[in-house]
Amino acid sequence: MKRPWNLSNIPVYSLATCEGEKLNMNISTYVSAVSMNPKRYMVAVYHSTQSLQNMRNSKTAILQLLGKQHLSLVNTLGKKSGHQYDKEAYLKKKRLLEVWNDKRVLTNCAAVMEVEKIWSKDAGDHTMFLFDVTRFRTNHGYVLMLDDLREKKLVRI
C-alpha cells in the first residue's frame, strides 16, 4: 500500500526562474492553490538547487502547469542540476521556448502564471514560497499528472 502522501494524482508544474538574464526551470509537484481572492499559490522548492538560489534573489517567477507533451522534459528539468547543466540552452536548441508577457516560458503549457513572492519559509528539505498570481493564461486542459510520471517510471513512488 502506498503512503498517504503518494496516493494523490497531482498536476506537474515547472517554476521558471532567472539569475540575471539566465533562465532556469525545474519540476515541481509540491504546488497548491491556497487562496481564491487574492489568488495565491504555495510552491516548495528543493534545497541546494539553482531554482532555490534564483528564487531567493528574485521577487517574481513563472509557474507553468505542464501539458502531457512535456513528459519528455521531466528528466532534463527535474533530474539535472541548473548548477551544472544549461537548461535554457537545451530548451532553445529544441525550440521549446516562447515569449509570454516579455518572459520566456515553455511552449504550449496547459497554463502559465506570473507570480510574485510574498514570503518564504524553510520547510525541511524544501523551502516553501507563497506567491500572488499577478497574470495568467490558460491554453488547454491536457495536464501532465504525477501518475503519468509514475507510469513511465520517471519517479519512484
**Share in helix:** 10-25%
The total of helices stands at 4
Order of strands across the main sheet: 2-1-5-8-9-4-3
Poorly predicted sequence stretches spanning 5 or more consecutive residues: none
CATH architectural category: Roll
The total domain count is 1
Tally of strands? 9
> Major sheet, described briefly?
7 strands, antiparallel
CATH topology: the name is: Pnp Oxidase, Chain A
- The Rg value, from CA coordinates, equals 15 Å
Structural class: alpha+beta
H/E order of the elements? Answer: EEEEHEHHEEEEH
CATH superfamily: Electron Transport, Fmn-binding Protein, Chain A
Please write the CATH class name.
Answer: Mainly Beta
* Chain oligomer state: single chain
Strand content: 35-45%
Distance between the termini: 11 Å
Q: How confident overall, as mean pLDDT? A: 97
Q: So what's the overall shape?
A: globular
Short description:
This protein has one domain (4-151): Electron Transport, Fmn-binding Protein, Chain A (Pnp Oxidase, Chain A, Roll).
Characteristic key phrases:
39% strand, 157 residues, alpha+beta, 7-stranded antiparallel β-sheet, 17% helix, two-stranded antiparallel sheet, single chain, Pnp Oxidase, Chain A
